[in-house]
Amino acid sequence: MDNPVSEDSLFDTYKSLFNYNSEACFALNMRGEFLLVNPAAEILTGYSDKEFFHLSYEDLIEKQDRKVTIKKLEGLLNGDKDSVEVSIRNKQGEKIDLSIVAVPIFRAKRPMGIVGVAKDVTQQNYMEFLVKEQNKILKMIVDGTNYTTILDEIVSIVEKVAKDSRCSVMIADKEQDKLYTASSPRLPSEFATFIDGIPIGPNSGSCGTAAYFKQRIIVSDIAVDPLWEDFRDEALSHGLQACWSTPVFDSFNNVIGCFAIYHSKPNTPNPKYIKLIEEATYLTSLVIQRSMAEEKIQHLAYHDELTGLPNRRFFEEKLKAAIADFQPANNNQHLGLLFMDLDRFKFINDTLGHHVGDILLKQFSERLNKCIQKKETVSRQGGDEFTVLLRNVTEEEVRKKAKKIIQILSSPFLIDGHEIFITPSIGIAMYPKDSENNVSLIRNADIAMYEAKKEGRNNYQFYNEKFDYQSSDLFLLETELRKADISKHFKLHFQPIVDLKTNAATSAEALIRWQHPELGLISPEKFIKIAEDTGLIIPIGEWVLRKVCQELKARQEKGLSPMNFSVNLSLRQFFDSSFVSTVANILNEEGINPAYITLEITESMTMDVEKATQILYQLKDLGVEISIDDFGTGYSSLQYLQKFPIDYLKIDKSFIQNIGENMDDCSIASTIIVMAHNLGLKVIAEGVETEEQVNVLKEMNCEKAQGYYYSKPLPLNELRLID
Questions:
Q1: Deepest in the core among 157, 187, 424, 500, taking most CB within 10 A?
Q2: Structural domains of the chain in order of their starting residue, each with its CATH number
Q3: Which residues contact 395 (CB under 8 A, 6 or more apart)?
């Protein structure tokens, strides 16, 4: 049957498909010269059809793509059908990425040229590039890469896209109201130094002004813009003629820095560059916030949050170093350790409230700091206990220091209209006279402090071997602890852990209590440390785990819904050689599904990364879940957590208690939650006490929470759980 469509009709059809195609269409002869182009090709390249007829494809294609394109063309002329991605320059010199599909043209079975369709994939490639680079930056953040390295990488990415640009990142100093350079790898070093510390304010260049007004500042021509009046000569002398600056915000819309793009010629950003700047600013914000959070966490790891003084960990490290480096000039020189607490502080707390007590501790710390010299170390040990370390001193010099501390407390403290008089009891121990190591030196100073209290308070006592250690509370507790019948005198309380999405308490943390027949209920803060030091924590810890398993089994036998119970581990228990096998035996003997048990470790247990990793993987092999408790107060960081098989991260209550009003704490908590999620961890917030804290945590996508807002620790039968 004859084809009813004439050749002329087919030609018209093909011509229409060619001319009216929305993609660029073209035809080349055997020499690669253009024979035909459609209007879409003219629009794409900026060349008219007449201009095309004086060009070959090589005139348009980027140099690096020519070899591949020539090879593809040769294949097409031999009868192949193929596609290729190339980059060209349009008439304005702008780079365009093309995906080209082409086929050969034959006449009488002889190749005459090729015809092809070119699709503009510039935007697609650009978006893929941005996503790829963004993922690379996010991975660097999660991996814990140094923040300046990440900022340099962000700057490098922008400079790749914005040709002939030089970028910088500046970080805001809130206290000084200035911006300081954090990254400027290609900016002239003299200029970078010149603007380092630029004031935040109006008419302060692009960056200072952007930070002041909290909005993007585009200076297209530095030579004439009044914002650059004070900085113009320096910028122009280094060949910088345009500057676009965008403020970097934290999660609470506070300016924490600026991202700037400089050009060697007057220039204004197009929409593509605006989008690029927004992406770069977003990533820069994540990096700076992570750095700020890590700095805060690092500071809190070594400092007391309430008073700002160095904490117990900091002091112990300094004491160890001082003992190791001790080289007295004569036999009269020692290391002097003063251990003090505030007399009747508990009475003040109970009568005037913890708010007044906190202010008193702050004011006392300020007074104490004033009488401490550079070579001396002061710390808050916890509660109302403080220590001072003096290096290369005589007993008389230590005596003078103790008297001075007593004297600074002699004048009253004025707090909320109350005139409060407080006195210290100070115990003193000397190294090497009273001790051979840091542990016993602190203990002996503590014993001497109790002697000062026995002598009427508001005085100091040097340690003496004749002190009756057996009369101290510590020794009494140790003796009673050794005599205690664990199964009779200890009991468990449980605090629910609530799912913030469903508000259901589907798990709980087991907390040990000591019910002494004569001394009454003794809190774990008083006896756990003694149990740890004496090794009694091992049998106590085994009893806790077994008791928890028995409670779980009892729930199952009653037909109640299954739930997860968390058990705290101690440092000594965790590193005990038989610990993993003990856990396995208890789970097996009690017949409990390990998935319903969560073992909580503290950050101090992760100092030995290799050994901790080995133990944690052995525990995970048993089927239990692992959580890291009190995160942010100890030794680990987010970059190390990815080494451990951890399921949950529990944010310490110190970051939660002011989360609704303290922007720094809120920022730290938010950063920890985001990073934890990036590591595949779920987050539990500890110490939740208010509805406001709950709402903030929900907004941060925190999974679970526990604290007095829901319930104080109670016996299991008094606790409202799912059933």
A1: 424
A2: 7-120 (3.30.450.20), 125-300 (3.30.450.40), 312-471 (3.30.70.270), 477-718 (3.20.20.450)
A3: 332, 334, 336, 430, 462
Average pLDDT along the chain: 87
Instruction: Kindly report the pTM of this predicted structure.
Output: 0.56
Residues 192, 193, 198, 203: is their CA dihedral positive or negative? negative
Average pLDDT of the residues in 294-312: 85
* Most confident range, picked from 74-78, 265-269, 294-298, 420-424: 265-269
Cα separation, 89 vs 98, in Å, equals 11
* Cα–Cα dist 701/677, whole Å: 9
For residue 615, which of 657, 645, 650, 647 has the smallest C-alpha distance? 645
- CA-to-CA separations, 648 to 67, 387, 598, in angstroms, rounded: 54, 35, 9
Residue 17 φ then ψ, to 5°: -60, -35
Radius of gyration of the chain (CA): 36
Whole-angstrom distance, CA of residue 574 vs CA of residue 83 = 62
Q: Which of 433, 533, 558, 390 is nearest to 474 (CA)?
A: 533
Helices then strands, each counted (H, E), the chain: 27, 27
Helix (H) or strand (E) holding 455: none
Q: Write the DSSP assignment of 518-561 as a string of letters.
A: TTEEE-HHHHHHHHHHHTTHHHHHHHHHHHHHHHHHHHHHTTPP
pLDDT category at 470 given cuts 50, 70, 90 is very low
203, two tokens: 């008419």
Determine the Cα–Cα distance for residues 625 and 638; give it in Å rounded to an integer. 19
Which residues have C-beta within 8 Å of that of residue 217, sequence separation ≥ 6?
A: 206, 207, 209, 210, 227, 244, 245, 246
Short-list 372, 466, 351, 498, CA closest to 415: 351
User: Which percentage of the chain shows pLDDT scores above 70?
Assistant: 93
Question: For residue 56, what is the DSSP state?
Answer: B
